[in-house]
Automatic annotation (TrEMBL), chains A, B:
Name of the protein this chain belongs to: Geranylgeranyl pyrophosphate synthase
InterPro entries: Isoprenoid_synthase_dom_sf (IPR008949), Polyprenyl_synt (IPR000092), Polyprenyl_synt_CS (IPR033749)
Family membership: Belongs to the FPP/GGPP synthase family.
Keyword Nuclease in record: no
Requisite cofactors: Mg(2+)
């Protein structure tokens, strides 16, 4: 059975020209069908695995903006709308259902699930999307049954393995998607680069944090690998390759993806300091409270006067009250860092838009991609 | 560049009929070349990654019996020696170098590296193959530089990610091996099953341990998934599929692999209680000291008298002196568990040998496989 076989109405309607806005609903159906298939295939091994399968299903189907599958689908459509590919190119069996490409791009959410489950272990987070993190779910099971050993360690061990499992399933979902092998082979470099870059970016993030680096170049390098490449560049690259895009289109989308992805993370940095908790769902000035050295905060430190630097250093990570947050916001604004990051965001999105509008792609996909990128980089949550 | 391009003398000699005994040396060369390739490709991202690349190279090239690549190569040769495949079957470019298959089977060592790195985190092990485990390497780096935060947590976080990285690279190494795509597609089910079974087997092991189960059936289920499938069944299955074996050969090798793999683990259980520390390199009665519930120990508990059970329960996990070990060995022997496990090992290997000798495969590969299996199941370390 293939992951897209009759999963639901949104994917049943799937066509080569389906708008980006329909990815999240269809992706949800396809992921649900794929996880049910895995349950049929492996659930029988032992009842103990139900916990893993339930935890993964709750986690994967419980939320997420589906940004990566949406951008990957944009890559597929770009290939088909002026990028040198065709919906039936590479198809030797007289008809590749568009659902095959939907399944292929949806597999990115399984890599994302592994990344988040492992990040939550690394950050010792209790909550994700308003629910207990996967390691806490296993920890609670251990505690509820008063099993032997440490509940905390049990939770971490099982969550680590659950992440490994879904990381392997991401590959399987792509391979079983039904996209012609010839195109899957062409898409391997993007897949290889994406997985290595996100892991290496996370390693870099932890190392830079441990060293207490305040170098803006370090924070931008983390942004590049951990977020920009993984969230935008490689998904666009992957989709374009799956769709059979020509080289110039792949190059264009990689360049544009790097700009959109960087702007996306810089917006995140702004929201981490200036975001409205009512909208972001996170505490106000979250990054100030945790003391995370983002590109925004490192530029504030770099641009500030000696007095401002001292004030920031004293406050970062030790902030508790909203009044403190307000005070630090004023300092960061005074250093000019907020404006600088805002200018950078606009500069990046402008050049991405210009590159797309001046390209050979059809206006249909250009407008949708520009619109989606603008939502990503101007979002308030 | 492909992983097998000019890696060294042993792989340069590689031929369709190269004996199983030559896999470890050639595998070492191919792995070293592949890791150097990864270093060229990703090492430039940041000097901080040197630690990861060095730790992975030391770990992967520092030891290991290469059991899985050897059995996978046995599968490839079985396909070519009576199993319905041919060295140049599926080759459209006029010559697949045998090194492509060597690279494909060597990729199993990268999955093994991830499994061991993550297991060492789960078991909080300090040493592996006489060297510090990967999480301890990162922990030491953190401590040596007196970086911010907990050295222990830093070590675990970086090792977790290093394991993820090499798990992704295993896929890449298989895909880039140069084995014709048509055969790679045929090999995916074995690859998919192997990765899921080893992870799920490990989850089961931890859960069974936490529940303190003494059910022999539970320990045998862990043996089946965590060891037998992963160590023997699926490597043989993978190799046979890569070599283009027919269905009856795949079925034969899967059945034989299950028997060899189970015997392999039961031998491990025997060595864990009765092994000679001078040969095993582990403390005498290691499993008695850790209190691990192996198939051997669970059968002793199941077969023992009430008095023997009590004695075992009191001793397990709290043993310190060699005298205690000696006493418990006597108890286990008295329950008949040692003989029972020994009989099981011989029964399994005998039926595997019979199945192979009565098969349609050429005596060349049958004899080598029987010989290798006998070394695995009669080993003293």
């Amino acid at each position: 059975m293939q992951p897209w076989t009759d999963p639901g109405p949104a994917s049943a309607r799937w066509a080569p020209s389906t708008p980006l806005s329909e990815v999240p609903a269809a992706c949800q159906e396809v992921l649900q069908a794929y996880l049910e298939q895995c349950r049929e295939e492996f659930g029988g091994i032992d009842p103990l695995l139900e916990t893993t399968l339930d935890a993964l299903a709750d986690f994967i189907l419980g939320g997420g903006k589906r940004v990566r599958p949406t951008l990957a689908w944009a890559g597929v459509r770009a290939a088909w709308e002026g990028g040198g590919g065709h919906p039936h190119d590479g198809d030797n069996e007289g008809g590749v259902p568009p659902q095959a490409y939907l399944a292929a791009v949806s597999s990115l959410e399984l890599i994302q699930a592994c990344a988040l489950i492992h990040d939550d272990i690394i950050d010792a987070s209790d909550l994700r999307r308003g629910r207990p993190t996967v390691h806490r779910v296993f920890e609670k099971q251990h505690r509820d049954h008063s099993w032997h050993g440490s509940p905390e360690h049990y939770g971490i061990s099982q969550a680590l393995l659950a992440g490994d499992l879904v990381f392997a399933w991401a590959d399987d979902m792509l391979t079983d998607s039904g996209v012609p092998t010839r195109h899957q082979v062409r898409a391997r470099p993007a897949w290889r680069a994406m997985r290595t870059e996100v892991i290496v970016g996370q390693q870099l993030d932890i190392a830079v944090e441990a060293r207490g680096s305040e170098d803006v170049a370090d924070s931008l390098k983390v942004v590049k690998y951990k977020t920009a490449s993984y969230t935008a560049t490689r998904p666009l690259h992957l989709g374009a390759s799956l769709g059979g895009a020509d080289e110039r289109t792949v190059d264009l989308l990689c360049q544009v993806g790097q700009q959109i992805g960087t702007a996306f993370q810089l917006r995140d940095d702004q929201l981490g300091v200036f975001g409205d908790p009512a909208v972001t769902g996170k505490p106000s000035g979250d990054d100030l409270r945790t003391g995370k050295r983002t590109a925004l905060i490192n530029s504030a430190l770099a641009r500030g006067t000696a007095a401002q630097r001292t004030e920031l250093h004293e406050a970062l990570g030790s902030i508790s009250s909203d009044a403190d947050v307000e005070r630090m916001r004023k300092v960061i604004i005074a250093t000019g860092a907020q404006d600088h990051i805002e200018d950078t965001i606009h500069g990046l999105t402008d050049s991405a838009n210009t590159a797309l509008h001046n390209s050979w792609l059809h206006s249909s996909i250009i407008d949708e991609l520009v619109g989606f990128a603008s939502r990503l980089t101007n979002r308030r949550f």
